[in-house]
Design brief:
By secondary structure, the protein is mostly helical. The protein has 14 helices and two strands. It has helices at about 1-30, 35-45, 60-70, 70-80, 105-110, 115-125, 130-135, 155-160, 165-170, 185-195, 205-215, 230-240, 240-245, 255-265, and strands spanning about 50, 55. Helix 5 packs antiparallel against helix 6.
Length: about 290
């Protein structure tokens, strides 16, 4: 019995020490301490309690800390040093669902970490195949008990009106078609939110741009005949050309067809386009949406 008590006391002390060291690491990342110092802490000093024993944080878990606190230098170090292994699933101490997958894309989108998201999608080139890269981009990651459950990063970018994140994902091969658990495609989700906003919310412009990006990467978007039930509303929200196209009343304009061809041919080199053709710069408010 005394041995059991002693073991329990020792275990309790170890757990408390792990909590203190984990919090010290959290604060160091939050305070944007140098990457070399954080890596020394992660590999030699910091432990968290996992499966009844102290464990060091993995590069994947450290990258999640870097994402939350927008520590771009540390995120770049981890991705340069560990490549795609830094994008693996974290341990169960980070999520109660063993099959929740890697949440890095979702976390990057939710916190709008555009720079780190760009680093992540660039690192995916080190995956062994194109199919593996697509699978990662289209993963429905996240804990099954969280709000992001069943959603791809594209869905989340549309839901939160994150057009810059959405463009990065689509340009690197994420699918714009996949439905969520409510059987809504990202485009249908954006349109549903626009209908709820009715042009009054601050996110309306962001949702319009998200819809524009989805259309550029969807050569044959679904004909949404329900738009014809409220033509005046949708013409105001989408513009006449986009409304007629999505309602199945007319083909896309030649300008939109040309932009679709450009985005398909140079998806990884959008920065090399002329200024007026860059998706983040050209006036969607002109040819596609109302000004």
């Amino acid at each position: 019995m005394p041995c059991d008590v002693s073991a329990q006391v020792s275990r309790g002390q170890s757990e408390r020490q792990c909590q203190r060291s984990s919090f010290a690491f959290y604060r160091a990342v939050r305070d944007l301490r140098p990457a070399w110092l954080l890596e020394d802490m992660r590999t030699m000093e910091v432990f968290h309690w996992e499966d009844g024993r102290p464990c060091a944080f993995t590069p994947s878990e450290a990258l999640l800390y870097a994402l939350v606190h927008d520590h771009q230098q540390y995120a770049r170090y981890l991705l340069d040093r560990y490549s795609v292994s830094a994008l693996g699933a974290p341990s169960r101490s980070f999520c109660c669902c063993a099959a929740s997958g890697a949440p890095h894309l979702s976390v990057a989108v939710r916190y709008n970490r555009i720079s780190i998201l760009g680093m992540i999608v660039d690192a995916l080139k080190d995956l062994p195949s194109e199919n593996a890269r697509r699978d990662y981009l289209n993963c429905r990651g996240g804990c099954a008990h969280a709000a992001d459950a069943g959603k791809t990063a594209v869905h989340l970018a549309c839901e939160l009106a994150r057009p810059e994140c959405l463009l990065l994902l689509l340009a690197h091969g994420a699918c714009p078609y996949l439905a969520d658990r409510a059987r809504q495609s990202p485009l249908e989700r954006v349109l549903h939110q626009l209908r709820q906003d009715s042009g009054a919310a601050a996110d309306t412009r962001g949702r319009q741009v998200c819809a524009g990006y989805l259309l550029l990467f969807m050569p044959k978007p679904p004909k949404l005949h329900f738009l014809q039930r409220e033509p005046q509303l949708w013409q105001r929200l989408l513009g006449n050309h986009a409304y007629r196209w999505l309602a199945g009343l007319a083909p896309p304009t030649l300008f939109i067809q040309a932009l679709q061809t450009v985005t398909r041919d140079v998806p990884g080199h959008l920065d090399a386009l002329p200024h007026f053709l860059k998706p983040l710069d050209f006036r969607l408010a002109g040819p596609l949406w109302p000004s």
